[in-house]
Amino acid sequence: MELLSYQTLKELGCEDYILENAPERILQFGEGNFLRAFVDYFIDVANEVSGFNAKVVAVQPIAGQTVKDKFIAQQGLYTLYLRGIENGQKVEKRRVISCISRCISAADDFEAVLACAHNPDIRYIVSNTTEAGIVYREGDTMDDPGAASFPAKLTLLLLERYNCLPEKGFVLLPCELIEENGKNLLACVKKYIALWNLPPDFAAWVEEKNVFCSTLVDRIVPGYPKDAAALNAANGYEDGLLVSAEPFGFWAVEGPGRLNDELPFAKSGLPVLVTEDCTGYKQRKVRILNGAHTSTVCAGLLCGLETVGEMMADPLLRAYLEREISEEIIPTLDLPRAELDAFAASVIERFQNPFIRHELLTITLNSTSKWRARVLPSVTEYVKRKGALPKLLTFSFAAYAEFFRCGRFDCKDDQEALDFFATHRESSPEVLMAALCAETLFWGQDLSTIPGFLATVTDGLKAIQTKGMRAAMEAVMA
User: Fold this and answer.
1) Which residues lie closer than 8 Å to 381 by C-beta, 6 or more apart?
2) In the CATH hierarchy, which fold is given to the domain comprising 6-277?
3) Which DSSP symbol is given to 289?
4) Up-side HSE of residue 382: CA atoms within 13 Å toward CB?
5) pLDDT (tens digit per residue) in 315-341
6) Per residue in 412-467, pLDDT tens?
7) Virtual torsion, Cα 246, 248, 251, 257, nearest 10 deg
8) What is the DSSP letter of 123?
9) DSSP helix/strand/coil, 199
10) Where are the chain's structural domains?
């Protein structure tokens, strides 16, 4: 088969929307699966539906990867599959993405990155350099940008823009999965400005002429499909950049309302929201989607299940998850109930996605910090609002404790947590829970100060150890 290219598509008589030529308007740090299945998909749809007429310059941030070569060989083209459950029906959508013009290497050719600052059409900078990408390193220098952190590279790019087109700042849309990613990125840039003794006028320009938006991204992207050979055969071309993702997607951008006029995502019917405060949407995702995962996976494993799909096919586990979301998590959130219910329904569908095999054991990675960030806020807020403990979320703490105590699984967590459970492997439920609740290093507070919590989780652990997980869950659900 021929490699995917504009010419190959023409020869095949492809009737997909294809944009071969358009101005480069977006600079994208990151060329991986997530950005290609999320941001680039949105841009491609906006090009078709709203005439956004924008091309993306993708930047490979670090050396040693081969994606850039594949982009060059395929002229920036690739195929995206959105597969999953929507409105109760299995869906599989295919789209050729044509919004990327080229891919350059920040490590091998940083001059090409700086040259983008001279293009007045480039207005937006998108990034996804992993959670560890937004970091400040005192050892970074202006003389070796290829080896520097992403914020250091960005600082040099901003300086180049300031020197050549000071009237045109950027809108920055970081997609790294950290809290306040935009604010953290700006903070790193300011540190590099100080480290390198850059002019005060430049420092002022960075804050006055550029918009650093914090964003929330939500889409599961498994990446390269396992059935790629069959998909390529059906398409009639070879595509080394195939990517698959779930149909659900949501992007909340914390920024000025005028961005809605600049960025035609909402006008294109895309799930992109520009708002001055993303807090409610962050809480919705963390507490419902992530919290439901964290509060059920340990119980699921102790019931002998292996994947999220198996958990959703199990009547008891599914009922447990649906009830805790509806009765214990949603009442702690402040968005309109209809919005929360709709999001919860989408989460249930996402958990049933037959195209994604999500191992429960992988979700238990760092369960201690996850329970603190994803579940504990729902527990404390429920107590505050209802004056009682949420039974199922509280029980999930007992399931977490038994999962790590029992020694049956290959548990991965911070060493302090692993050491704690190794020490208490043979402890009674009373001793283990009293010590665990008092570990303020884990929870940021003494959980035994929450009225009734210590006694309830101790009883839950006793029930799990004497009756087994499934019977203990049935009892707490009764």
Assistant:
1) 332
2) Rossmann fold (3.40.50)
3) I
4) 24
5) 999 999 999 999 999 999 999 999 999
6) 999 999 999 999 999 999 999 999 999 999 999 999 999 999 999 999 999 999 99
7) 150
8) -
9) coil
10) 6-277, 280-477
